[in-house]
Amino acid sequence: MKLKKAVQKITLVQNPPPTPRFVRIKEEEKAKTLHELLDHLQFFGNATRNRESFRVTLLPTAPLLGEIGFWSLITKDGTERNDFGFRSADIGKAIGFHCRLWRSAAPETAASVITAAFASAACVAIAVKFAATGATAVVIFRAAGATAGSSNSAARAETSGEGVASAGIYCDGCNCVNCHNNVDNEAARQEAVGITLERNPNAFRPKIASSPQEPRNSKETEIQVIGKHNKGCHCKKSGCLKKYCECFQANILCSENCKCMDCKNFEESTERRAIFQRDYNLDHIKQPTNAAITEVVGSSGYRTRITPRKRKIQEMFPRKSAADQIVNVTAQYLQEIDRMASSPPSLSESFVSEHANARISGSSRSTYRSVLADVLQPQNVTNLCSLFVILSRVALNTNAETRGNTKTGNLKASAASSAKSLRETKDVRQPVCDDHVNKAEADAVDIADYNRPMSPETLALMCDEQDNMLFGNRSANEAAYQNTIQKSFNFDARSTVVYGEQERIIMTNFLDVLRELVTFGSIKG
DNA sequence: GAGTTTGAAACT
DNA sequence: CAGTTTCAAACTC
Ligand SMILES: [Zn+2]
Ligand SMILES: [Zn+2]
Ligand SMILES: [Zn+2]
């Protein structure tokens, strides 16, 4: 008993509460095999998520994936978009998310519904259904910081050091949680400043040399010329006439330090003049009596306070070991992946499929056809989506339970049957977006619910379930591993396990899907 | 220097 | 005006 307690203590020290981000995969080599596996697919971009929402950034190279067909994200007016986000709660709803089938004979654009989404340490998968045609697809994004061989960004941020504390200005009345940048924490603040300076001696140097800060009554144009951005801006799209531009924001003209494109922030610029004139009019003509007040905040941002934009230091007091603290509950499925990754990567393209029902009767020439169309059956996508949904519900309900009870059994059955149906490629004609599924999806908000603890009973059930469901006859090692997981954590650390378990369920089943697809690909090609 | 992540301005 | 999209700096490697 004593020994056990000691173990717990050590584990606790090594495992502080997980940050609300992706769990880092501990063993890099195994993680690498996972990424190798995922490299057999193609990522469309990177993704981060928090509790409420997903945020996805398309890779710059994404259009090149069009070799086998690709969708881009577009706005309603047809322009391309780089990144987008959506809320977990909106999954299953029509949210005006537009996709375009790229490189199709006749690029089609349609509003889409995100039918499911889930996130793991390694990837974010989003299932989309085209509203118009009913075509479905699953797109896989690489999770933030989950590039092969690297630790995740949360861990990396631990060692990064841009402080919030800036040049003697304290936070006061800010909304920071646990803010230490104030007079009560002078020592800590100084330390953070010191660390930051050590890393970057220029961290607190003003960006603007002799920028005009003094209020004045008129003739702004003359004053504005004074000052120069030390590093210069690198604007590309704003013309340096929006506050995106640090020069414009600082109320100075662009200089030779700038590497901006299409710069309109120079003395003779008519565009700049126009803005200036408009600003002046707003301040002095429309609201003449308020002139003194608007001195503080100009309508276009001139004369606003210049606050350098800095990334937050991670919790001000970096915990060095955090990178190594997250439990590795992924070992088992990673072993599976090892096996898989060593097989020939015949499935080397994006995981994109189309719904068979979507094809317009007769000719299909007008629609994009993936080279994987023969490999990826619609059922794969459908089943995968369904799996997301059901597993989401499992996770949700499991978390809602405070103690293990009979409900768990139902959920177990549900998940198990889902996984089963996923593997069987029976002809499931049911569209992903059927009503009852949609409802489930709407409920399935948060698969990885990080913080809620799970009872030991439930935990045990979940573990058993996975064993039966995924590994049939588990090895003694794996059994021991499961025990270790359960015994190694006290109440406080348990949420980590919960998250890990959920992730493992999902990823393992996800793995099954991928394996199945690889198998098909091997057979085909 | 390229690629990624982040905070925030701009937009609706 | 809250939610979403666009933007460029800060960051990492
Ligand atoms: Zn600029
Ligand atoms: Zn500039
Ligand atoms: Zn410029």
Automatic annotation (TrEMBL):
Organism: Sphenostylis stenocarpa
Name listed for the protein in its UniProt record: CRC domain-containing protein
Sequence segments annotated as region (Disordered): 402-427
Pfam families named in the record: TCR
Keywords: Nucleus
Similarity comment text for this entry: Belongs to the lin-54 family.
Ranges annotated as biased composition (Polar residues): 402-411
Classification via PANTHER family: TESMIN/TSO1-RELATED, TESMIN_TSO1-LIKE CXC DOMAIN PROTEIN
GO CC terms: nucleus
GO biological process: regulation of DNA-templated transcription
Localization per record: Nucleus
Domain CRC, chain residue ranges per copy: 151-268
